[in-house]
Amino acid sequence: MPSSTTSPQAKQLTYYTSPYSPYCHRVHIALEEANVKVSTCEIDLRPGCKPAWFQKVNPMGTVPAFAYGGPLVPPDQPSPMSLKLAESVVLIEFIADLCPEAGLRPKDPELLARARLFITLSHDNLHHAFRGFFFRGERIESVLPSLEAFQALLAPSGYAIGPWSMADVVVAPMIVRFMRLAGYEIGKYPMGEGKRLLKTLGEPRFARFMQYYQSLWERPSVRATWDEHTNVKMWRIHPNVTRSTSATGH
User: Fold this and answer.
1) Complete DSSP assignment for 75-113
2) How far apart are CA 42 and CA 99, in angstroms?
3) Phi then psi dihedrals of residue 124, to 5 deg
4) Which of helix, strand or coil describes residue 142?
5) Residues 6 or more apart whose Cβ sits within 8 Å of residue 10
6) Count of alpha carbons within 13 Å of 171, Cβ hemisphere only?
7) pTM above 0.85?
8) 141 burial class (0-12, 13-18, 19+ CB within 10 angstroms)?
9) Contact, 186 vs 194, CB < 8 A?
10) Are 33 and 3 in contact, with CB atoms under 8 Å apart?
11) Backbone angles phi, psi at 41, to 5 degrees
């Protein structure tokens, strides 16, 4: 069923999402920060379950996606008069433009450039580590260098570039999943590696990484948009992270 929050913008906004997608979580955080009114429509991404009508929203078939403006219609009947948008970073910047008072886009040109550079550089580090650990089942020794490289991108204190910005919105979902799913030993890595990862991240050499994670975890918009029960349930049965019977600890 569609859901709504309070909003400053004049035109209707329909948000197509999936509850366990980190890319959708990015957009959900931005919407929460900006207090934007949306109608939410969840898309079932399982093979054979995605509705045919969704191609009218996004021909690529991916979420998150927006239908903005046009007449108020049911989410499964998108109007040809509405603007169709996709790709999480594009949607975040769109929200930042709609609601500049939310502070997602830094007003200072130098900070804005740093935020965009951080988003670009952090992507490969975080995604390499996440896919290596959870999808390919690599041990922590293979993913720690990527997490160290990510840590090196962080400002000395505060959030990613110091003040909160869209840079934090982009990376928060992946950091949260790294920490929360590892605690449940979800992933293709050998059983026990999740707890070993968390123990290693607690060492002094990862102090800045853990400070940053704690700042994200305490951010109201991040906590309000993180459904631990649903994510644990869905990631446990995700075919790309299901552990084989041979992937056991020693």
Assistant:
1) TTS--TTSEEEE-HHHHHHHHHHH-GGG--S-SSHHHHH
2) 24
3) -65, -40
4) helix
5) none
6) 32
7) yes
8) exposed
9) yes
10) no
11) -130, 115
Distance CA 102, CA 12 (A): 18
At position 3, the amino acid (one-letter code) is S
pLDDT in tens, 219-250: 999 999 999 999 999 999 998 899 875 454 44
pLDDT digits (tens, 9 = 90+) for 137-186: 999 999 999 999 999 999 999 999 999 999 999 999 999 999 999 999 99
Rg for the chain, CA atoms, rounded: 19
Q: What is d(CA 85, CA 94) in angstroms, rounded to the nearest whole number?
A: 9
Ordered strands of the 83-86 beta sheet: 39-42, 13-17, 65-68, 83-86
Tell me, what amino acid is at 163? P
Are 143 and 149 within 8 A, CB to CB? no
Q: Write down the residue that tokens 């909160």 correspond to.
A: 164
Distances (CA, A) of 201 to 9, 24, 151, 166, 209: 41, 26, 11, 25, 8
Instruction: Give the pair of three-digit tokens for residue 29.
Output: 């955080």
Phi, psi of 225 (to 5 degrees): -105, 5
Residue identified by tokens 């009114």 is: 37
φ and ψ at 22, to 5 degrees?
Answer: -65, -30
Helix 22-34 × helix 88-98 angle, to 10°: 0
The Cα 51–Cα 176 span in angstroms is: 29
Long-range CB pairs of 228-234 (<8 Å, 24+ gap) are 228/180, 230/19, 230/20, 231/19, 231/20, 231/177, 231/180, 231/181, 232/180, 232/181, 232/184, 232/186, 234/19, 234/20
